Amino acid sequence: RQRVFSGVQPTGALHLGNYLGAIRQWVTHQDLFENWFCVVDLHAITVPHDAQRLAEDTMNTAAMYLACGIDPRRCKIFVQSHVPAHAEMAWLLNCLTPMSWLEKMTQFKDKRAKLEDAQSIYVGLFTYPVLMAADILLYRAERVPVGEDQRQHLELARDVARSFNHLYGKRIKRQRQPPVFREPEALAWDESSGVARVMSLTDGTSKMSKSAASDMSRINLLDDADTVRSKIKRCKTDAGRELVFDDPDRPECTNLLNVYRALTGSRPKAEIEDVLRQSGGWAAFKPLLAEAIVTELAPIQRRYREVLADRGELQRILRDGAEAAAEIANETLRRARGAMGFMERV
Ligand code: ATP
Ligand code: MG
């Protein structure tokens, strides 16, 4: 079975974009692959963070994986910083990644633009994609199911792997061993299980994010039914009456229809447009959408409370995950150190 690696940052409450763009896909594919799901806490500190909250957010993110349907008997779940090889590998890769590659990353430009104080634009935010490359390459993962916003970072991970193998692979090749790194691929994106890019509820041109200032811009997976209804009622719409998919001038309309479709069995777009044409415009559609979201979230919220009621069990799952992860990660790190010519520890 091919190996999958993916993760979410513990930067706050998970939202519908994380779910439809990533986690729901992890869940539907968990039997097909060998799965490694990480709570990437080292990534969460690349922007100013609240030290009082990090540990709790890390626990909550792991709990949410389980609540969404990740089965710890079939998948390993662990916390990134519990496997020190991630940080060490990131340093090695930092020392062969050209700055010019990172300067092209659109997420860095976006996040930098949002940070008003220049003192809080950290070097770590700039090299974030290198840490992400380390995460993936340590496990020699073949597939990486992420939302559209992470595509560019995944490409970079491939470039870094190729560059390392090229620079340091000669001796390994002579010894007829497999290359240190494997070039990962995005998991071919499956329309039936999600939405590659869920947009903000208040601006159809920017993605839904944990770190966006306004809570009205996103549906959190823990929002109660009334909150979901009021956010949908107040979310941005347009003056067009017909509800149609994929009109480039109507990003809000496309976004809400995509979410609705993903939550209601992914029927053909034309069929959904037909039904909505007869029921009549935004006023009729919004309650339908709100109820579809509420229905999807209810069992997740119930399981979330159950998971957090037994923290001992969650900690056991994370400990077991970190132990298993370290075994693979340390072996890749050992080979990478050897290839780069480091003196062996005696
Ligand atoms: P932050 O604002 O702190 O970066 P985020 O909402 O972007 O938070 P991440 O932890 O960075 O969430 O990403 C976790 C996963 O969710 C990634 O696979 C990412 O591609 C996916 N994802 C995040 N936002 C969206 C979105 N709006 N639509 C689809 N997928 C998304
Ligand atoms: Mg993000």
UniProtKB/TrEMBL annotation:
Signal peptide from the UniProt entry: none
Domain of life: Eukaryota
Class in the EC hierarchy, top level: ligase
Location(s), subcellular: Mitochondrion
Alphabetic keyword roster: Aminoacyl-tRNA synthetase, ATP-binding, Ligase, Nucleotide-binding, Protein biosynthesis
Molecular function terms from GO: ATP binding; tryptophan-tRNA ligase activity
Annotated GO CC locations: mitochondrion
Family statement: Belongs to the class-I aminoacyl-tRNA synthetase family.
Name of the featured protein: tryptophan--tRNA ligase
Organism: Cyanidium caldarium (Red alga)
Full-sequence portion shown in this chain: 106 to 451 of 475
